[in-house]
## 1
Amino acid sequence: MTDKRVNKVVLAYSGGLDTSIILKWLQTTYGCEVVTFTADLGQGEELEPARKKAELLGIKPQNIFIEDLREEFVRDYVFPMFRANAVYEGVYLLGTSIARPLIAKRQIEIAEMTGADAVCHGATGKGNDQVRFELGYYALKPDVTVIAPWREWDLRSREQLIAFAEQHQIPIAKDKRGEAPFSVDANLLHTSSEGKVLEDPAQEVPDYVFSRTLSPEEAPDTPTVITIGFERGDAVSIDGEALSPAGLLTKLNDLGRDNGIGRLDLVENRFVGMKSRGMYETPGGTILGVAHRAIESITLDRGAAHLKDELAPRYAELIYNGFWFSPEREMLQALVDKSQETVTGTVRLKLYKGGVHVIGRESPYSLYDQDLVTFEEGAVAYDHRDAAGFIKLNALRLRTLAQRKKKLGM
Amino acid sequence: MTDKRVNKVVLAYSGGLDTSIILKWLQTTYGCEVVTFTADLGQGEELEPARKKAELLGIKPQNIFIEDLREEFVRDYVFPMFRANAVYEGVYLLGTSIARPLIAKRQIEIAEMTGADAVCHGATGKGNDQVRFELGYYALKPDVTVIAPWREWDLRSREQLIAFAEQHQIPIAKDKRGEAPFSVDANLLHTSSEGKVLEDPAQEVPDYVFSRTLSPEEAPDTPTVITIGFERGDAVSIDGEALSPAGLLTKLNDLGRDNGIGRLDLVENRFVGMKSRGMYETPGGTILGVAHRAIESITLDRGAAHLKDELAPRYAELIYNGFWFSPEREMLQALVDKSQETVTGTVRLKLYKGGVHVIGRESPYSLYDQDLVTFEEGAVAYDHRDAAGFIKLNALRLRTLAQRKKKLGM
Amino acid sequence: MTDKRVNKVVLAYSGGLDTSIILKWLQTTYGCEVVTFTADLGQGEELEPARKKAELLGIKPQNIFIEDLREEFVRDYVFPMFRANAVYEGVYLLGTSIARPLIAKRQIEIAEMTGADAVCHGATGKGNDQVRFELGYYALKPDVTVIAPWREWDLRSREQLIAFAEQHQIPIAKDKRGEAPFSVDANLLHTSSEGKVLEDPAQEVPDYVFSRTLSPEEAPDTPTVITIGFERGDAVSIDGEALSPAGLLTKLNDLGRDNGIGRLDLVENRFVGMKSRGMYETPGGTILGVAHRAIESITLDRGAAHLKDELAPRYAELIYNGFWFSPEREMLQALVDKSQETVTGTVRLKLYKGGVHVIGRESPYSLYDQDLVTFEEGAVAYDHRDAAGFIKLNALRLRTLAQRKKKLGM
Amino acid sequence: MTDKRVNKVVLAYSGGLDTSIILKWLQTTYGCEVVTFTADLGQGEELEPARKKAELLGIKPQNIFIEDLREEFVRDYVFPMFRANAVYEGVYLLGTSIARPLIAKRQIEIAEMTGADAVCHGATGKGNDQVRFELGYYALKPDVTVIAPWREWDLRSREQLIAFAEQHQIPIAKDKRGEAPFSVDANLLHTSSEGKVLEDPAQEVPDYVFSRTLSPEEAPDTPTVITIGFERGDAVSIDGEALSPAGLLTKLNDLGRDNGIGRLDLVENRFVGMKSRGMYETPGGTILGVAHRAIESITLDRGAAHLKDELAPRYAELIYNGFWFSPEREMLQALVDKSQETVTGTVRLKLYKGGVHVIGRESPYSLYDQDLVTFEEGAVAYDHRDAAGFIKLNALRLRTLAQRKKKLGM
């Protein structure tokens, strides 16, 4: 454990067994006042039971914080990330990574409000989430004390945890006594499952793992066609209906779930140095990502689009590694946001059994000008003869290289 | 037209009406000897009719070159590109782009063999292909004369082309008299369709455009599961059966076609400066791309994988723009190939109605070590307490920034 | 020549012989009204003679524009570029490149004011400047007609130019009759010399070429020490004296000249495809560049600094190639400027015989905290033991790779 | 201290007081056999005294390894790095960083030879060197035990160290009793000085700090002109005399020292998260870096050169951070080395009072072709009219953007 004295700690509290054990462990180990913070990021669980449980464990009412952060989550974290087309290792839409900075930020804000000197999270010592939480904490409150129970305590097995819970009168649901067959994280953007039965990357993920999407096979036999409206890079409507950020993502999640969209079986590289196999379900986000690229395809200039493409892996890595609150992420965001000023219009998509297919896009800012691409003559801006000079000068250095080869018999 | 004297020209000749017109136009305009080069890159057309047609148009037998380049195409162009996970503008697998350098290279080799001083292609003056052909020509034979009829002649309409053909006794198939509703390019990797009826990016592509894939809706209701074997970054077998590069891609194309895989409706940015809408079908390549990333996911180290990811857009842009035979493409290839030494193993995939889903991967070179990721204690290489120091030092600069903010009231 | 009808053209007019010939050529060839635009960008020539000469050549007074753009040049072009630490090919400070966009912008603005439909510049057909001018023109007025006499006319030699001048009563200074031994471009940031006698890169540049700096050997034997003040990335004072952008650069130029600073003998790669050898003198800019990096070294976070470093070559290439008015340059500028908010403070420099040596830097925003770096214990934010964990987790993937090697006998 | 049992440890042993204390501390703390490894990397100290001292401290003769690694150091570490033009944070030539991997590699090799299970270095717990050593160790021998005394022991002050030494009969030179005013590291490439009296970045470095170079002011009043010969990217001769890698760098060091070249006063960002101020002297390396860029300037194609420039900061960061033995460094090296095949020729330099000025370069592989750059007509590969088309197509997307602005009144 950390050797610092702690007076008051803000705990990221889900209301579940594990964070309840942490709550009690904080009280008994640090003898400190505990403030619980429970956030609705769209994980699909009711929050009020968390209040009851916290009270039961002796938390004062004024120390219980329960907040619905869904709109802030989508508006200020998910959407900026999608503007960048951020994808980690070619495929992962960063659903877990992007939720951590917001939780960290609110914990620190609550610490400031309540005069707490410490914060605590329930992430394990082998994963990325500990890094994401703690980089967030430190970036926002450099002198905060961070408590990471899973790295500190000597509860080494499920049995010991259960024993600790029993000893401290923490209620234990029946199905929580044994080991979970895998661990789950969820928010409005995605659900991830990993560990235990999922660890062998050679083995197909068993069907009961999925909680958020129908399988493509179960999805309807007829496609669903939708139109997503964008303004300045952000989705703002579905089929003409204006929606709030969280409302829109919720709707896309429903559409994605029904059409078997967004499952991903991945072996990824963790920031802490090992590989891990994850199973992700990102139904709405998968649709959103395809749609955003499509609206960009007609509204972004090539120079802007290619620069974004080259920097997107870097941006994604920063978020994956937990550097949301870093100058370099903010610099990249400034670059990305600068490009989105005209990313406005609509994209039509066909959703079908796991697939998201673009079938049309329109924009008042479209840079696609039919006159320029028709194969007939007539367009003023493009003269076929220009192409000859363009090619000649682009070829010049290659010709020079070839002449050198010839001259030197290389 | 170019103002150079031309004695002998090697024409990239498909045997179709357009290149037959070009052939005749070369003879009449330049008064030069024409060598025809017809390559099988897997476009799915018989080549022998091209020989007949060339003979009919007065080409001497020794000047008719017909070659099956499918193995070379896949082995030396497609596979190296897939090692790089090259994707243009986030989605396009570069099916047309990658075929041009090989055609250019063979044209130049035939020019050297036959003593020709010029080469000629049938690409239009508004597209990328003219650039790709000509950069290839110049890079390999810097003093070659390049003839690009579509930029040179004054045949301004379909009617004029047909009139020219009739005037020179070029046989015209009935269905070639009118305008084609769109233009098509095909090879073993893909089929592209663009122009005319496809030009409005707001309009869905009509179904008759697709020639290479079933639609997802028409594909079978049961998934197909396959296993692809890789060696040093290249696919070498399907379901345990060793296959040549072209054999393998052909097989993947069949699998892809049957399962509705690889259709892409795209608005892309051409090198020559305008946007264009293309409809691509890349059935086997789509499967291959997913599989290659999956085998890399367990055999490539994070540092290698992320460096590749950051450079892939650049590599893709080089190929799209026609710079295959450039020092920078070769440098990037050296970097990529260095990483592929251990990219060996098998990937299991489920193909279903347009989707390619990874369900397992195995490798003797796997870097995925289950002992390291299990959530229990015991693994020697990873100590939970290390994470604390790791995070602390990664956070140090962020804390310093935060302290500055605090100190200065920023 | 361009086949478009031209009514009125805005000519970038220096008042020298060459642009006077162009002026007359425009009148005689296009029969159009000519508007002259002469800008003071600090090239060190008086502008009023240009007015006289224009009048002499028949330009109406209201069509003669003479402007002092020095402040705008430094403030809106030079300084933003230095914020990015832009250096082309490792050494060139882009002195010529950065002046072109401003000239192009003013020409277009004058064209809009005067109702001109064309613009004209005097850059040759082999250099980069034609590209920079014309990309600027087109980016700001897409329908403008561009006249580039050196690419259009048939005046093929110095003799023909002189003959044309004589024929049209253009006054010819005696020393302009013969060929110049090399060509020169100058503005407040630099003077470049290239061509003719300078073309052989194996030959040392003869001393008479330099006009802007003493040679290091001639410079004083005692160093000059100065202090430059920065605010938000821009230099604002020298030795405590606040100066306007142009005033500051002028002062730095004097200091640089006197101390033999800023000469550069370079072989560079032109955008148009060939190599060229240039001789540059950038006295003040060389000092400014060193100073800017020094103030950044204590005020910029590592993440910000390294991201800038990785993007600086790209930014420099864009400016060199003429893409100042492009979305991607503006996006990069947004990224750079975001980082400069705290780049405020002072840098002390020793100037001595060609060298610029940083000897001190201070800032209220300094991130350099002596407590953190002393080799003794005590600093709270840094615990030696953290380093062990930091290293262990950074090493984890390398150890996994090594274990694989060992296991497989690789 | 590490909780592992250690039987035999290979210590990086300089023979100085600090590593002698470490030696004894290892014996007394771990009760293990100690193997000393003392390498000549050109630090300018005799090695035989280290043997005597090791024997005196009880090391068996067969456990004393003293090696001259200068040639290997320059050939296999310094030169590959200079091929990449690696510069950290715009200015630092990585003189300390590049020596660490070689020492780590030899320690591990000696560990394998002697059956040692541990290695030990004398780097402090706050610097980069601990990271560089240990990443090297782990990358080459994943199961090695690493001992870092400065992070482990409880000797907290100079007094305690001296007391420990006295207690264990370690001879103490008089000038080592007190604190050194700053710490020094040296090898054939450079000497660094940092810490203590140098820590305030606002204060000029006092003159007695420099050990490796004359000051520019003291350097001769007449320039020295030299010619460096390169083959495939590596320097091979000076003034026509072929030299071994270490011989050549030694000679350049002499030339640099005499001419006051290579001093650098820098605030840099350490990998461990803090800023530090260092004083570097890199006399020969500074000359070599300038010369290498100059020979590249005529032998490298633009595409190759710019790709290298964009990747150089990344490559430098990897070396600075200690990732020499990583896949990504090796991949970048493959890319760099691929480009160096034709980097052969000679560069003429003028060395003068701290400055390194290129005055000429020649190569049989030169891509600089005078015919192409002269301002007169005649060169076949370059037609002025091509420039018009080149510019037009490069401008096309900018014009489209401008048209959009106009149309929408943006």
## 2
Amino acid sequence: MSNNLVPAHGGVLKPLLINNETEREQAIRSASELISVKLSSKEESDLIMLATGAFSPLDGFLGQADYEGVVKEMRLSNGLLWPIPITLAVSESIANSIKTGTRIALIASENDSVLASMLVNEKFSYDKKIEAQNVYCTTDSDHPGVDKIFSQGSIYLGGPVEVFSEGEYPEIYEEFARPAETRALFEEKGWSTVAAFQTRNPIHRSHEYLTKVALEVCDGVLIHPVVGKLKTGDIPADIRMKCYRAILDNYYRPENTVLKVYPMEMRYGGPREAILHAIIRQNFGCSHMIIGRDHAGVGDYYGPFDAQQIFDKLEPGDLHLKPLKLDWTFWCNKCEAVVSTKTCPHGKEEHLMISGTKLRDMLANGERPPVEFSRPEVIDILIDYYSSLE
Amino acid sequence: MSNNLVPAHGGVLKPLLINNETEREQAIRSASELISVKLSSKEESDLIMLATGAFSPLDGFLGQADYEGVVKEMRLSNGLLWPIPITLAVSESIANSIKTGTRIALIASENDSVLASMLVNEKFSYDKKIEAQNVYCTTDSDHPGVDKIFSQGSIYLGGPVEVFSEGEYPEIYEEFARPAETRALFEEKGWSTVAAFQTRNPIHRSHEYLTKVALEVCDGVLIHPVVGKLKTGDIPADIRMKCYRAILDNYYRPENTVLKVYPMEMRYGGPREAILHAIIRQNFGCSHMIIGRDHAGVGDYYGPFDAQQIFDKLEPGDLHLKPLKLDWTFWCNKCEAVVSTKTCPHGKEEHLMISGTKLRDMLANGERPPVEFSRPEVIDILIDYYSSLE
């Protein structure tokens, strides 16, 4: 079958999971002898991203030259676009216990599984404030991405990894899929243009509209929720998955819509995270990614369209995936449709807008938002969830 | 101002209207001495298309080499894509009265105005059946495009034209605009991606949806109805213009939606006409054109997506404009939205479909179709129109 999909970032998919059973067992045995380092949940997610090939062409946690290129100029030392450093942080005392040039074992964040081994090529200190400011545009530790930098160890270990396990994700999520698998699926379906929809929320009608605009102009859509750990207050992945499945079953065509998950943790990094999301989606075989209002944003750290504009600053060839920049969307009573700031001429008084806080309050009280806001199938699940919290 | 618009077809806009007042008067005076040829309404429309630059880079009616290249291979003799021949047909006796190498005057179809002069470089006979079959995929004279070939003279005159007048179009339509004007307007608005919407019908909600999908993914939309003579039964341009203005006033944003008209006559040529429409729109400065189901089709002469598929057969560089291929669209009761065959999973029983014939009957009886089918402002105008016919 001819492959019309976009190439992987940097040219080739590089999944770092050891697939051969014998080799893996051998590697796990050898790892039991090694000094071990416990991962944070973010690092564990990143390791699994490396394992699947979603972070291609990285071969492990960044060394110093790559790290500094990424923080300062959004580029690896070979010039390839990369917006957010993928790092492994340890305390000074742990760092002192590890010799450069030796192999260590990487341990899951919430149990004792040995997930991978890593050849520590480099140990280096870094400036937390510079990383925060450059990557997240703020040093405010209320920002969840910044907070993770400030609460981690002060030394980064850099080097290639060999991964033994993708943790519990493949068991928990039947929709867990690696880039090579989504690519094979898209090829089997004969798609060449595929739009990714990144989400960490249930899909309400305004989001459904975004995906359907994308469907009108592409062969297919990949609904691609992040299922790594989210910040407090975000709706947990298992509940969101129920919502996604319900809406896909009732309002999408299975021929052209695919639901798959990926295990990264959100950084809430706005523009730079939008670029990371795009690189990941290109690895998954997507030619387009929906970038809506305040993509991957949190609080007021970013302008509503910063994550769209950053794509305009890239050099030709930096990315094969194209952003599908879409505007703020909502139901309009005069249009009698879900529309956007671009397609609706009417005033705000005609627009059905419900803030996140308001929606949570309504659902917690068992109050149903209008069907123009969200599908009843989704609301049922959310009301159940909020009532279970009480 | 930097120009990010697509280039004109073949590179440069070539409007053939003489703009200089003195030169034009001189040319008109000279033309009064010449042998004159009365144009058909189609030829007159084509002449005005040439005058405005919409048929760039043609410099007049096609000579034999260009004609044959177009009919057989959709290419001018220099290799440039051109799908439907732009021709001037005369009877044998008129042809005999004209010497090759002389200039003739071209007279309006419905009055005696001298619209242009033409240097007759060539006279040649042609095969009507071959033209019909190649261009329209049929020799059935029930096809309105084929009928025009069969009822015209048997000799084509080829040569460059100098046009004195765009006829009555600029007076009748305040929205009459030449390619240089739409380009200036798009540049002033700072657009680089503009989607054209070709139409010969009132805009109902399914068409509105097509234009709004285009708006979501482009900087602006050009609603661009054809106002040349249509086939019997089509709604006349003045009524349609009222409908367009009403819907634009109420459901579109003036910042990103422009209504302009062009004077061509429909050929109902399906796939080849879609290519012609695309070339014209590229001349008008559009980067995209909506190609829906059965674009420019009539009866059952073409498959519903032939006019989309023909674009896949072009060579790279043939066109700078890209087709926005959209599917069949309709209101769905379950989706509670206008959707398409791509975005709706529900059965036909949920879809609000009203055939052209049924709609005419309803409107003629003063019966209003549901608001989900068409905006009330449009229905008011159409009911008025049909009741005036009785």
